[in-house]
Amino acid sequence: VLCNINQFWAEGSLEKNNALVEYLKQYGVVRTDKVAEVMETIDRALFVPEGFTPYTDSPMPIGYNATISAPHMHATCLELLKDYLQPGMHALDVGSGSGYLTACFAMMVGPEGRAVGIEHIPELVVASTENVERSAAAALMKDGSLSFHVSDGRLGWPDAAPYDAIHVGAAAPEIPRPLLEQLKPGGRMVIPVGTYSQDLQVIDKSADGSTSVRNDASVRYVPLTSRSAQLQDS
Ligand code: SAH
User: Fold this and answer.
1) What distances in angstroms separate CA 180 from CA 58, 177, 194, 229, one per listed residue?
2) Is 226 a catalytic residue?
């Protein structure tokens, strides 16, 4: 028992993580039990580098000019995608960074589903793998339903396509065509589109393959770009 308590404090605090989720509920961004539950299960502290505050509602640097998104953005995207993250479904997380959202996706689609994180910085893929290993999603990575890959996310990841849910965690000047192609009819993509100022766009593909687009919010994300461009101004 003592051992478990020590581990509990060493690896963050589920109590504080729950308080963050409670705050997001009161703030109105966490609206459903499903999203609250997954955010309570995946402790944000495991995904934020030491020396930064995991439980405040802001993005935090994770190195390589990348950030872990703010909790309210994670919550917003989970709420927008929750119906497309049912058990057995396939989800793609482009620009997986810390791995936080990929881990949430994996918990929601479960062992019969697939959650794929694509990230073009190899060091971040190593870090996200270690983060997940300490989290409640560890078993899903071990059994292969959750995986991270070093690749250019603008190309998607055809191996596990088509996807019910596609999330892009970096801002694209326009929607990359391969991502649209890898979206399943009946599926949904959430992607920040724009350069300096961006709209969080929600793209729904209907059964006949046609798409509808709406803007959900104004947002600020790091750019979806080439590895060399991203590392240039570091
Ligand atoms: N959802 C992540 C966000 C990380 S920030 C989180 O909350 O942790 C956006 C990430 O996109 C960065 O890690 C960056 O390295 C990555 N990225 C940017 N352009 C990319 C590209 N072309 N292919 C893959 N990853 C990319």
Assistant:
1) 30, 5, 17, 24
2) no
